[in-house]
Design brief:
- There is one protein chain.
- By secondary structure, the chain is an alpha+beta fold.
- The protein has a single domain (about 1-385), classed as Cytochrome P450 (Cytochrome p450, Orthogonal Bundle).
- The protein has helices spanning about 15-25, 45-50, 70-75, 75-90, 95, 100-115, 125-130, 130-140, 145-160, 165-190, 195-200, 210-225, 225-240, 245-250, 255-265, 300-305, 340-355; strands at about 1-5, 25-30, 35-40, 55-60, 120, 275-280, 285, 290, 295-300, 360, 385.
- Helix 8 (about 130-140) packs across helix 9 (about 145-160) and helix 10 crosses helix 12.
- Belongs to the cytochrome P450 family.
- One of its GO terms (biological process) is antibiotic biosynthetic process.
- Its cofactor is heme.
- GO terms for molecular function: heme binding; iron ion binding; monooxygenase activity; oxidoreductase activity, acting on paired donors, with incorporation or reduction of molecular oxygen.
Length: about 375
């Protein structure tokens, strides 16, 4: 039995074990740091099946700091799908794209602050971390003065080692109380933000979101949309600067930014620990019989490098098309916030190319360090100069 997760050669490269397992043992017995014994899936088709097949259900790992209310909400399939239907009516790609000017303005402001301090700078702290929480606060109609509180709550929810379970629980309670008062205020005096729309829209089939569902929505947007995108901004820049030719190509052909973002999302080898799924009935995966009650771990970043699906998967092709990566999941449970994440990443990358064409890593790529204990994966720092 293998110990999981594996140790990669650098903070932005994949571990050798993924390629070996895809070739020889696509359903591999592993043991997690929490002592959980599971089967690790590394091939694209198998990982996609666990995401889309109803025989595989969510199985939150013991010891995680997930907010209890969210875990219970996500476990109720009917309630969860009704919530998704109501939210998707407002969370459209068109609406998210309309946020681009505001995201660009925030990006320019943060770059102004960073350049004012002079190089070198930590791009994660200066840009990657604050930008998504500012965007989400704007979406929810949260005053700018409360942004730092949201950033702190997000960090407590998603870090497995830095905070105790009690600290995470307390942060969840604080945010719940804040959002409950915020939702009540929006019902009384709606604005032009997304949350105001959600608390007032009534659907003929699904009714409207309850107070509890609105509060959950605020938490879900923060947890799913802040730390993940914050880390992805840093990783995106690090991957593109790791080989200078990638950055130079985008400077020469800025029209490649959308496909470059998709390739960065596919190429990311640091997406966290993997999705836990519980097998509800005896089934077969890649020729291996798996009994009901077994926990499977799906390695999305390994699936995104499966030679059976992607040509030259270990090469970053900034013009790759099609690019059916699984970073945002697939099927009815694919990430609701993927349109927002894509808009944020495209906007940040375009502004960086425009403002700081000479941007480069301030340390060798081998010296970049992974953030420890995060469910979503990330880099401790992204030191840059310009």
């Amino acid at each position: 039995m293998l110990d999981y997760p594996f140790t990669p050669p650098t903070a932005v490269d994949p571990p050798d074990e993924w390629r070996e397992l895809r070739a020889t043992c696509p359903v591999a017995p592993v043991r997690t740091p929490a002592g959980i014994e599971a089967l690790l899936l590394t091939r694209y088709d198998d990982v996609r099946t666990t995401i889309t097949d109803r025989r595989f259900v969510r199985n939150t790992p013991a010891g995680s700091n997930a907010v209890g209310t969210q875990a219970a909400f996500m476990a109720d399939e009917a309630q969860h799908m009704r919530w998704r239907r109501l939210l998707s009516r407002s969370f459209t790609a068109k609406r998210m794209t309309a946020l681009e000017p505001g995201i660009a303005r925030i990006t320019h402001d943060l770059i102004d602050e960073m350049t004012k301090q002079g190089p070198p700078a930590d791009l994660r702290t200066a840009l990657g971390f604050p930008l998504p929480v500012y965007v989400i606060c704007d979406l929810l109609g949260v005053p700018a003065a409360d942004r730092e509180r949201f950033a702190r709550w997000s960090d407590h929810f998603l870090n497995l080692t830095r905070y105790t379970a009690e600290e995470a629980r307390q942060s969840g309670l604080e945010m719940w109380q804040y959002m409950l008062a915020h939702v009540e205020a929006k019902r009384s005096a709606p604005g032009d933000d997304l949350l105001s729309e959600l608390v007032t829209v009534v659907d003929s089939e699904d009714g409207r979101l309850t107070e509890q569902e609105c509060v959950f929505t605020g938490q879900a947007l923060l947890v799913a949309g802040h730390e993940t995108t914050a880390n992805m901004i840093g990783k995106m820049v690090a991957m593109l600067l790791a080989e200078r030719g990638r950055w130079e190509l985008l400077l020469a052909e800025p029209g490649l930014v959308p496909s470059a973002v998709e390739e960065v999302l596919r190429f990311d080898a640091n997406l966290g620990f993997g999705m836990h799924r519980l097998v509800t009935e005896r089934t077969e995966i890649a020729g291996t019989v798996v009994e009901a009650g077994t926990t499977v771990l799906s390695s999305t970043p390994s699936a995104n490098r499966d030679e059976r699906v992607f040509d030259h998967p270990d090469e970053m092709d900034l013009a790759r098309s099609p690019n059916p990566h699984l970073t945002f999941g697939a099927g009815p449970h694919s990430c609701l916030g993927q349109s927002l994440a894509r808009v944020e990443l495209r906007t940040v990358l375009a502004v960086l190319l425009e403002r700081l064409p000479g941007l480069e890593l301030a340390v060798p790529v081998e010296e970049l360090r992974r953030r420890q204990g995060l469910l979503v994966g990330g880099l401790e720092e992204v030191p840059v100069r310009w």
